[in-house]
Amino acid sequence: MSPQFSLDLLDSTIAAPTAGVAVVGAIVRGAGPQEIAAAERFGHHAGMAMAFFDDWEGVWGTSRDALEDSFADLRRRKARAFVAVALQAKGAARDELAAFYDGTAEPAEDVLRRVAGLIEECGGRTWLELRIVEHVRLAEQALPDAVPDAAARAELAAFLAAIENELGG
Predict the structure, then answer these.
(1) Rounded CA gap, 128 and 106, in Å?
(2) What's the CA gap between 168 and 4, in Å, rounded?
(3) pLDDT tens string for the chain (169 positions)?
(4) What is the rounded distance in angstroms from the CA atom of residue 73 to the CA atom of residue 82?
C-alpha cells in the first residue's frame, strides 16, 4: 500500500471527474480560457478535499456513528492514503497497525477503534487533516476566477468552509 497509489486513485476517480464537471459548467456558460482553467483547478481541489473529507468522516467524523457501517474502510482494510502514510512511521504502533492490515479476521468494533487510534498515533490523521485544509485553500483560491456569479460563489465557499469547520468539530 503506497500513498502515491491511493493519491492517484483519488485523482482519477474523484478529482478528475469533479474538475471535468466544473469545466463543462464553465464552457456551457460561455467562459473564456482563464475561467475554464480556474474552474478546472477549483473542481480538482474541491474534489480532493471532498474525497479526503469522506475518508476522515468515516473514521473520526461526528456523524460516523450514524453511518450505516462506521469504520467501513478500516473494516475492509481498504488502501487509503492516510493509512499508507501511517504505515511509513516507525515503532510499535506502526507494527501493530501493519499486523492489522496483514490480517484477514473480521475485526470487532473495539479493534477498529484501536486501529483508528494507531493511525492517529502514526501521523495518518494529521496528514489527512492537513491535506483537507490544503485542498480547501486551493479550491478557495481558484473560486473567484472560476465562478463569476456571486451567489453561486458564496454557496460554494460556504460548502468548502463547512468541510473545514467539521474538522474542528
Answers:
(1) 25
(2) 27
(3) 677 888 888 888 899 999 999 999 999 999 999 999 999 999 999 999 999 999 999 899 876 556 567 788 999 999 899 999 999 999 999 999 999 999 999 999 999 999 999 999 999 999 999 999 999 999 999 999 999 999 999 999 999 999 999 887 5
(4) 12
- The position carrying cell 456513528 is 65
> Do 112 and 74 meet the contact criterion of CB atoms below 8 Å apart?
yes
Q: How far apart are CA 94 and CA 117, in angstroms?
A: 11
Nearest to 129 by CA among 18, 46, 19, 55: 55
Q: Closest Cα partner for 163 from 59, 23, 73, 56?
A: 56
Q: Which backbone phi and psi does 137 adopt, to 5 degrees?
A: -60, -45
**Cell for 1?**
500500500
In the numeric block, the cell 469545466 is attached to 23
Three cell numbers, residue 51? 474525497
